């Protein structure tokens, strides 16, 4: 759509309504993580998962999603704010900063996610130790060394 340092043309809304892809290649962009304001109003965005990666943009402070089906998702605001992790209190979603209830909900979800991830990591390490002990007991300490000795 845009290439070789072209500027976004001023056009009527209608031609952009079916926009599926924006190509900013060859525009000498240094990074998109410097974007502070992103307006995605009146599109067809339906799921939190489809825009969740925007939470990884470290400078994004304002995100507009009004006019999208995503706004009908249960707990839309808190689920979207959760995408920003610890920065969720700094982000304005649809022109509105999170209220205290939203902040508390996001903090709770983040704490639960961290606890779940820590538990999963602990379980993964426990399984690795068990597998290592099984390999040791079965004589596979050197990764097949016993096979080489037996075949000679």
UniProtKB/TrEMBL annotation:
The keyword DNA damage does not apply. It comes from the Eukaryota. Residues 105-135 form a coiled coil. GO terms for cellular component: cytoplasm. Keywords: Coiled coil, Leucine-rich repeat, Repeat. This is LRRcap domain-containing protein. It comes from Heligmosomoides polygyrus. The lineage of its organism: Eukaryota, Metazoa, Ecdysozoa, Nematoda, Chromadorea.
């Amino acid at each position: 759509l845009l290439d070789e340092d072209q500027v976004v043309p001023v056009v009527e809304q209608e031609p952009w309504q079916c926009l599926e892809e924006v190509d900013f290649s060859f525009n000498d962009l240094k990074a998109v993580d410097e974007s502070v304001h992103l307006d995605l109003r009146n599109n067809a965005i339906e799921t939190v998962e489809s825009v969740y990666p925007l939470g990884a943009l470290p400078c994004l402070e304002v995100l507009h999603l009004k006019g999208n089906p995503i706004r009908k998702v249960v707990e839309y605001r808190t689920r979207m704010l959760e995408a920003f992790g610890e920065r969720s209190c700094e982000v304005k979603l649809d022109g509105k900063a999170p209220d205290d209830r939203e902040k508390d909900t996001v903090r709770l979800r983040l704490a639960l996610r961290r606890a779940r991830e820590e538990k999963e990591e602990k379980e993964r390490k426990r399984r690795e130790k068990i597998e290592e002990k099984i390999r040791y007991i079965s004589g596979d300490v050197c990764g097949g060394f016993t096979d080489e000795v037996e075949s000679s």
